[in-house]
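Try this one yourself first.
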């Protein structure tokens, strides 16, 4: 395969997270179409302290970067070097992710074809178990000019490239590159520039058909990469092939982060009911078991009860049939009584249930197990299905920031998503439009519960709309 320009690149950073950590050094080897190579490198002032572990690994300390240029100062010239080039790196997702985020903060959008030399090595040498740089040095006799410094490691990748081209058939290399760098086959009904502006940020994408009917809604923290993946695989996956054939228009909506994308995707799928989305469709019979001290569990439906406030609620199930099946299965596993659970009737009082006759019930039906003990065992058996009550007094704003430091506030009440605000005006509008009893959604509940459990979002309690009106009147 022929490329007009190759750039072998390596970064040193303050850590492994491309959002919170910073670049400390950039090194690259640039190779033109005639095979002429030139190199460039620079230390970068990360504006944060370099951890001692990283200083020991790379040899780059705080004093060395103190007077180095900021990334924003290097960005225009570096961007020009990368423009139109094949971006080649070892564990390329790491280096490309760091640079993409750094360029975004500098007001530039990096888009390049990317080749990972780890994946290339695995493709060309499938019998080898290790493919890190040290393994490549040893296996191919590469000559390191240093390790864990950006330019030295970038030069090793250039050496590896030259070595494989000197020692392997060109057809084998071309086949490996063709597999690793599949270009998307653009759907026939889309204009040629339809994918040009899709950003590589968190967000949601929407596919529409010929009559503007919703076909599919998806989400990703890397929108562009995810959208392109549908068309990279359209010859392999029947679903992607059908989407490609039916697709006439696409839209996307950027979000600050992953949680916003998950919430928006779940909401849009319920609202639009796209043809190819099944997993997140609205569950109209959403229900859960509510335990009582003095009787069998009661099946409670989200349409009739405010799940966010209900105590001793266990589920969630998409239908009565699935709720019954789940309770029967737990009864079998824990020797619970189907009569006490309300899942089996009996013609005569004090007659043992069918399971008791098979020694599969501990006898609560005939008084051989105390009702309170049976209830406690049932509650323990259901513990993994407990629906958590809403832990706040009312509406809260869940604050999520993007790489560019823009802020979104996700309004939530009783585990119900009310929308996302990006300004005071939209915040007020959402509060005003919020229904008195928003519909409980199992997917939204799971998204929010996991995010709060992991501490992914900052929680800010909000007053009711009536309180907001009073505040406004006083200003």
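Now uncover the answer:
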């Amino acid at each position: 395969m022929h490329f007009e320009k190759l750039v072998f690149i390596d970064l040193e950073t303050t850590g492994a997270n491309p959002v919170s950590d910073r670049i400390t050094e950039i090194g690259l080897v640039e190779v033109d179409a005639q095979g002429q190579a030139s190199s460039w490198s620079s230390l970068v002032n990360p504006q944060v302290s370099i951890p001692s572990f990283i200083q020991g690994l790379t040899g780059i300390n705080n004093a060395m970067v103190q007077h180095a240029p900021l990334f924003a100062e290097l960005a225009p010239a570096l961007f020009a070097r990368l423009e139109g080039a094949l971006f080649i790196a070892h564990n390329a997702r790491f280096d490309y992710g760091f640079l993409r985020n750094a360029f975004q903060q500098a007001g530039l959008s990096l888009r390049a074809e990317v080749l990972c030399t780890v994946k290339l090595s695995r493709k060309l040498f499938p019998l080898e178990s290790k493919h890190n740089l040290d393994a490549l040095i040893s296996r191919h006799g590469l000559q390191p000019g240093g390790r864990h410094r950006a330019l030295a490691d970038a030069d090793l990748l250039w050496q590896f490239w030259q070595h494989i081209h000197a020692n392997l058939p060109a057809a084998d290399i071309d086949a490996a590159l063709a597999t690793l760098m599949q270009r998307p086959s653009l759907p026939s009904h889309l204009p040629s520039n339809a994918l040009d502006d899709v950003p590589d940020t968190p967000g949601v994408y929407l596919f529409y058909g010929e009559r503007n009917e919703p076909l599919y809604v998806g989400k990703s923290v890397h929108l562009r990469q995810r959208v392109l993946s549908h068309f990279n695989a359209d010859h392999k996956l029947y679903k992607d092939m059908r989407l490609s054939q039916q697709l006439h228009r696409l839209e996307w909506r950027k979000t600050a982060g992953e949680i916003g994308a998950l919430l928006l995707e779940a909401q849009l799928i319920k609202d639009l009911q796209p043809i190819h989305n099944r997993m997140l469709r609205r569950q109209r019979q959403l229900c859960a078991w509510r335990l009582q001290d003095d009787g069998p569990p009661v099946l409670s439906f989200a349409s009739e009860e405010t799940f966010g406030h209900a105590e001793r609620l266990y589920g969630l199930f998409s239908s009565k049939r699935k709720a019954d099946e789940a309770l029967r299965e737990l009864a079998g596993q824990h020797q619970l009584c189907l009569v006490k659970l309300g899942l089996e009737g009996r013609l005569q009082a004090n007659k043992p249930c069918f399971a008791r006759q098979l020694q599969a019930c501990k006898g609560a039906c005939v008084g051989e197990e105390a009702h309170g003990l049976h209830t406690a065992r049932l509650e323990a058996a259901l513990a993994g299905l407990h629906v958590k009550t809403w832990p706040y007094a009312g509406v809260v704003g869940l604050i999520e920031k993007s790489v560019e430091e823009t802020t979104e506030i996700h309004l939530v009440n009783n585990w119900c998503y009310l929308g996302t605000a990006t300004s005071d005006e939209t915040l007020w509008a959402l509060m005003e439009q919020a229904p008195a009893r928003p519909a409980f959604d199992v997917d939204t509940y799971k998204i929010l519960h996991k995010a709060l459990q992991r501490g992914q979002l900052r929680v800010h309690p909000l007053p009711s709309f009536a309180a907001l009106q009073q505040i406004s009147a006083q200003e």
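Discussion: The chain is about 35% helix and 20% strand. The CA atoms of residues 165 and 173 lie 8 Å apart.
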